[in-house]
Design brief:
Largest sheet: 5 strands, antiparallel
Radius of gyration: 39 Å
Helix content: 40-55%
Strand order of the largest sheet: 2-1-5-4-3
CATH superfamily of the largest domain: Histidine kinase-like ATPase, C-terminal domain
Number of strands: 12
Order of helices and strands: HHEEHHHEEEHHEHEEHEEHEE
Number of domains: 3
CATH architecture of the largest domain: 2-Layer Sandwich
Number of helices: 10
Oligomer: single chain
CATH class of the largest domain: Alpha Beta
Strand content: 15-25%
Shape: elongated
C-alpha cells in the first residue's frame, strides 16, 4: 500500500471512531502535510478543507468551501460510484487558481461527517515528479535513437571494412603466387650466378611466403566477422583433442606435456570456436619453443561473477602486462618477428569470434614465466 493510501486508511479509522468536531481529529486534519478535503456525497459541495489544500490550490478557505470539486476539474463521479468504505485511488488533472494545471494523486474514503455521507479525499501533488518522469522518458527515447543510429553507422562501417579487407586480400593472393612461382622457375632454369643473387632470390621467396600467410590470416579474420553463426551444443574437450592432433606433426621432435582438464559443453559455432582454440594452442606451442620441457594446460574455472572461463596456460616466454592492451590488436606483436614467426592476427581473430558469441577474452603473463589466456562462452 502506498503512503498516501495508508494515511487515508488511518484517517478513515479515526473518523469512524471520533466525532468530527473532536479536537484531536481536527488537529490531525488541519495540520496534515498532505492536502485533504471532505465533500458532501449528495450536494457535491465541500464540507471541509485543510490548510495544505488551501495553499496548494491558491484559494482562500471561504472561497474554497463555496465551490464544488467540478470547478477544480475533479472527476468526482469516479469516487461516488464506489461502495461505501472502499478505497478509491487515481491520478487526475486539477487546476490551481488562475488555471495552472497540476497532476494530483488522490485517495478517497466514504465517511460520516456530522451525520452526512461524505467523501474524505487525501491528495498529493505529483506534478514535478510527472514532469521529471516525462523528461526522463524523452531523454531515454533520444538516447535510444542515437544509439540505434550510431550502431547502424558502426555496423555499416564494419561491413564496408570487412568487404574491403576480403577484396584486397583475395586480389593479392594471385600476384603473390606468381612471385613465388617465378622465383622457383628462376632458381630451376637459371641458377644464381653469385651468392648475392641467391640471397636476393631467397629473400623474395621468404617475403612472398610471409605475404601469403598474412593474406590467409586476413581472409580468416574477415570470414569470422561475415560468416553467420551456426549455434549448437559444442563439446570443447573434443575440439581441443582435434586441435592437438593437428599440431602433433609440427611438434613431433619436441617434448610437450598436454594437460587437458574436464571442459564443459557450450553453446556456439563449432568451426569458429575451433579457430579460437587453434590460435591459442598454436601460440602456446610457438612461445614455448625454447623450453626443454613444454607444458600446455587447458582447463575451466568458475569466475567470481558466476561465468565459466576456459583457459590455455603455457610455461613459455610470457609477456609484459604493461603491453597487454596490444595483445588482441591486428598486426600487434609483443615479440620480434625474428624470434617468433607470425602475422599478429591470430589473437585478433580469436577476440572477434568470442565477442560474436557474447563472451570476453583476456590474457595474463609474466616475462619468462609463461602466459595464460582466458575466454568465456555460454554453457550449454
Amino acid at each position: 500500500m502506498s503512503a498516501l493510501r495508508f494515511l487515508a486508511a488511518a484517517l478513515q479509522r479515526l473518523v469512524d471512531r471520533m466525532d468530527p468536531q473532536e479536537g484531536r481529529y481536527r488537529m490531525l486534519f488541519e495540520h496534515s502535510p498532505l492536502p485533504m478535503w471532505v465533500v458532501d456525497v449528495e450536494t457535491q459541495r465541500f464540507l471541509g478543507v485543510n490548510e495544505a489544500a488551501v495553499r496548494l490550490y491558491g484559494y482562500g478557505r471561504e472561497a474554497f468551501l463555496a465551490m464544488t470539486p467540478e470547478e477544480l476539474r475533479v472527476p468526482i463521479g469516479d469516487f461516488l460510484q464506489s461502495d461505501a468504505g472502499a478505497v478509491v485511488h487515481g491520478t487526475f488533472r486539477h487546476l490551481r487558481k488562475g488555471g495552472e494545471p497540476m497532476d494530483i494523486d488522490a485517495v478517497g474514503h466514504l465517511v460520516m461527517w456530522r451525520g452526512r455521507a461524505a467523501r474524505l479525499v487525501v491528495l498529493n501533488d505529483i506534478t514535478e515528479r510527472k514532469r521529471t518522469q516525462q523528461e526522463l522518458e524523452r531523454l531515454n527515447r533520444e538516447l535510444e535513437d542515437r544509439v540505434r543510429s550510431r550502431t547502424a553507422q558502426l555496423e555499416a562501417a564494419n561491413k564496408e571494412l570487412e568487404a574491403f579487407s576480403y577484396s584486397v586480400s583475395h586480389d593479392l593472393r594471385a600476384p603473390v603466387r606468381h612471385i613465388d612461382g617465378f622465383v622457383k622457375l628462376l632458381e630451376r632454369e637459371q641458377p644464381p650466378a653469385t651468392d648475392k643473387a641467391a640471397h636476393y632470390l631467397s629473400t623474395i621467396a621468404s617475403s612472398s611466403h610471409r605475404m601469403a600467410s598474412l593474406i590467409d590470416d586476413l581472409l580468416a579474420l574477415s570470414r569470422t566477422g561475415r560468416a553467420p553463426l551456426e549455434m549448437r551444443t559444442v563439446q570443447l574437450g573434443s575440439l581441443v583433442d582435434e586441435v592437438i592432433v593437428d599440431l602433433r606433426p609440427d611438434v613431433a621432435r619436441r617434448k610437450i606435456e598436454w594437460r587437458v582438464g574436464t571442459l564443459p559443453a557450450v553453446r556456439g559455432d563449432p568451426s569458429l570456436l575451433r579457430v579460437v582454440l587453434q590460435n591459442l594452442l598454436d601460440n602456446a606451442v610457438k612461445y614455448t619453443r625454447d623450453e626443454p620441457a613444454t607444458v600446455v594446460e587447458v582447463g575451466a574455472l568458475r569466475l567470481d561473477e558466476g561465468d565459466t572461463a576456459i583457459y590455455v596456460r603455457d610455461n613459455g616466454v610470457g609477456f609484459d602486462m604493461r603491453y597487454a592492451d596490444r595483445l588482441f590488436g591486428v598486426f600487434q606483436r609483443l615479440h620480434r618477428a625474428e624470434d617468433f614467426e607470425g602475422t599478429g592476427i591470430g589473437l585478433a581473430t580469436a577476440r572477434r569470434v568470442i565477442h560474436r558469441h557474447g563472451g570476453r577474452i583476456w590474457g595474463e603473463g609474466q616475462p619468462g614465466r609463461g602466459a595464460c589466456f582466458y575466454f568465456t562462452v555460454e554453457r550449454a
